[in-house]
Amino acid sequence: MRRETQNILLVLLGGALLKLALTGTYLRYVKESLQPWLVLTGGVMVVLALVSIVRDIRLGQAQPSGVEHAGHEHGTSRSPWMLLLPVFAVFLISPPALGADTVNRSDRNAAQEAKASSGFAPLPSDEVIPLTISEFVTRTAWDDSGSLDDRTVKLTGFVVRKDADVFIARLTISCCAADASPVKAKMAGQDFSALPTDQWVEATGRVVPGSATKESAFVPTFTVSQVVPIAAPEDTYEG
Q1: Most confident of 1-15, 30-44, 126-140, 167-181
Q2: Which of 88, 133, 143, 175 lies at a CB distance of 3.0 to 4.6 Å from 139, suitable for a disulfide?
Q3: What is 100-238's CATH superfamily?
Q4: What is the rounded CA–CA span in Å between residue 133 and residue 139?
C-alpha cells in the first residue's frame, strides 16, 4: 500500500470516528461513557495522518528532480481501497439501533439474572413512578416485598410482537451493541394493534403481581392504562 493511500485511509477512518462521536450516532454502537475515547482515538488518527502528509510533502520538495524515493511503489493495488467501504458506510448511511428483531432472537430476559443481594431502594411516593424496564423487571422478579404491587409506573421502550403477544422492550448493553441483551414486559389491558413494531412508546400501568416467574422467563405482565407513541430517544439502550 502506498503511503498516500495509507494517509488518506487514516484521515477518513479518524474522521469517521469523530463523526460518530460528535453527532451522537455512537450511541447506537457503544455506551455514552466511551465517547471521550472515540474522540481521542479519532483525533489521534487524523493528527498522525496529517503529520505524515506534511512530512511527505517536505521530503518531496527536498528531493532532487527526477530522483525517486527508494522503495517507492509504482503500482496501486485495489484491495486497500476496499477498506474505504465501511468508512463510506459511516458517512453516507445511518443504520438504526437494534430493535425488535434482536429481542425476538433471544428467549431470555436480561434482568432475570440481576438479583440484588442487598435489597432494593425505597420507591418514591409519586403517583406515577418512572422506571427503566430493567429495574421494573428486576423488582417484579426478585423483590419479595412486592414494592411495585398496586403502584402505577411509567415505562419507556419500543413495541415488540411475538406470536399473539405484545411487549414493551429495551436492550441493555454493558459495553457496546455487540453484547446487547433484551429486557421486556408483556403488555395487556388494551388493544395494541395500531402500534407498529419498533414504535417507541411511554406506557403507564401496573404490574400483575407474581407474573415474573421462571415459567414466564421472568417476563412480567404489565396492565397498561395509557400508552403514548413517542420519538425514539437519542440513547436507545439501557446501561
Answers
A1: 126-140
A2: 143
A3: Nucleic acid-binding proteins (2.40.50.140)
A4: 10
